[in-house]
Amino acid sequence: MASQLAFKSRIASTESLEKIFNAQEMIASSRIAKARDVALAAKPYSDAIFHAVKAMASHTVLKHPILGKSEENNRVAVLALTSDRGMAGAYTSSIIRETEALLNRLDEDGKKPELFVYGRRGVSYYKYRGRDVAATWEGHTDAPGVDIAEKISDELYKAYMKPAREGGVNEFYIVFTEFINMVTQKVRIIRMLPVEVELVDDSYEGVVDKQKMSSNSVTTFGHSSYPLYSFEPSAEEVLDHILPKYLQSRIHECLLTAAASETACRQNAMHTATDNARSLVEELTRKLNASRQASITQELTEIIGSADALNNEEE
User: Fold this and answer.
1) What is the pTM of this model?
2) Which segments does the entry list as coiled coil (predicted)?
């Protein structure tokens, strides 16, 4: 059995860790409500612009980068949203695992992925393993603002709009953690660009002349209703202006929901770590008491043995 001094040292160190874990849990608890509200507040705008882009794209017959690039190019951009700090359980490791799986699938499909990393933990992971990273961003995962979303979207917009001969990409994927509730956070992979267009049902009886319908008209194809748009000055210019805003708004929403997920993961992880530290302190205390009792029993045995020996010598 270990010495009492060793048990006391382990108990003291575990109690110090318990205080740190508890403090981290309290900090995360104080931040989670604001992070959740900010993420939920950004979602309606992002969803609205996403559905508007899909509706606009479904009613245009032109070729535009937002719908797909015509040139042959197998380069693909992948953005992984990790964290700046640790103590968040499996938050970053889950993102890295899904990112690696996506990169492997792209490689198997004959594509060349270009990695973009957001968060100090992910940057350190890929830097240590010598993986080429196109661009990195650090220091904003706790409270991502519009400025960092704009920087990321500008970088990816430039990469997407470049021609293939200059190293441009044809697709853009993002890997992030979606905040569902305080207990559940799910890693998701979505394709940002090009936008997937839901084609209308060809079986609809009667072909609608899109050019003759007003801008507030609504026609039903299958089970969905889509608004029809008239574009001014032109559909190309409208899509040119909306593409950067679409990319920035969706990236900003992903950053915010990832921040909320990170805070929730950190709170859950620190709560579990605090409970484990307390259980370990209780277990070590029992072992310390058992060691102390064994030491006392041994000392009593030695005293009684010595007394018996002295009595035998006197007789």
Assistant:
1) 0.78
2) none
